[in-house]
Amino acid sequence: MFPYSSTLVSSLLLFAIVARAAPADIASTFPRPNEWCLLKDCAQPPANIVDRAVTLDQQLFGPGPAKCGDGICDIARGETCSSCAADCGGPCKNGPPATKCRQRNHFALTFDDGASEFTHGLVELLNKEGVKATFFVNGVWLMRDKSNAAATKFAYDSGHLIQSHTYTHRSLGDTKVPYSHVRTELVFNDLVIESVIGRRPRIVRPPYLETNPQSLTFMETAGYVAANINVDSNDWRLAESGKDMTSANVARNVRQAFAAKRGDGSWIHLQHDRYGFSTQAVGEIIGFLRGEGVQFVTMDVCLGIDGYRAANDNPVLATAIAGKTLLGGGLPSVNASTTSTTTTTTASATSTGLPLIPTQAPPPSNAKAGEGDKPSAATVGRVPGGVSMIAAVAAAVAGVLLY
User: Fold this and answer.
1) Containing domain of residue 230, as a range?
2) pLDDT in tens, 246-270
3) pLDDT digits over 19-48, tens only?
4) What are the b/e assignments for 342-372, b being 16+ CB within 10 Å?
5) In-domain check, residue 4
6) Where is the composition biased (Low complexity) (predicted)?
7) Model's pTM, two decimal places?
8) Which residue(s) pair with 297 in the sheet?
9) 167, 192 Cβ separation under 8 angstroms
10) How many whole angstroms separate alpha carbon 238 and alpha carbon 235?
């Protein structure tokens, strides 16, 4: 009944699929979810966020492969200030993460691993005390429970600083973690945070306070600033031991840690807003520190930098090398005027259209390990622009049938 050969139909279907799917090129920039997100029942970023990251890579860096010396800092495929100094503003200049503030007597209260059921109450307490803090959040918790996203937005609207702690709290010091996983943890976390508060963070608190040359050179090239601590509440040790988990012990730990580092002259502290017993100690800790005469600051003030990327900044490269992309410049035919205009357009396009509060995270991937050459579970069956692969095939079939 059908007058055309199966070969012709197959060819047309393949052409339709390739034509629509080619721009994604996800295998070359982001690994599969089951490869980089190792948490049980991992809540993946929504498909629109993943699509945006893939499309942004294509717009900025093209289809690849990376070629050092072509004037494009292809950070998506491993070029950094270390591996390709010529394209990426090298040699690298930044040292290890900061452990104290730049100005004497500044004290930064920071909370890791949020948001959680305790974050909203903690923000209310901080607001009552008139103290601004910094929250280093993991995107997975914002995707897993929309109340966590709401608490993060409440903190931001209250004047607190929201910064990055990677998407799943994976170590940035583990030499077994591939470069692409480090980048995915940070880029996806940025996009999730942006979907909640409308801003992209610049400061990263490395999980476990761990870094290595790979993660440090990536962060420098990408425009991040890593920040560690010198006053540890050790609430995490109390939680791990399962013993003595009281607010009094947390407050005692902070007093002792502060006394040991009094000579540093400025301080970055650490607590975790995932622990209710720890957040209950914050009022006592603030009272103690006020008695010591410290000046409370957020991490951007502490480090003397902007805490968020500007709206017209390149979202994935340091400002100093932001022009070295396909759309942003770096090619001989692109002049300074075009560079500025195009970069602004790209940044603007990537910061619109996302819901302020995520509704429902997609289900975790059922993909098996060893399938890294296949599309992400969050984007399988999808192409940039929100058009499904099935729709593309259906359109091709319809075209053949109607011919």
Assistant:
1) 106-321
2) 999 999 999 999 999 999 999 999 9
3) 333 333 444 589 988 889 888 888 889 999
4) bbbebbeebbeebeeebeebeebbebeeeee
5) no
6) 336-352
7) 0.77
8) 108
9) yes
10) 5
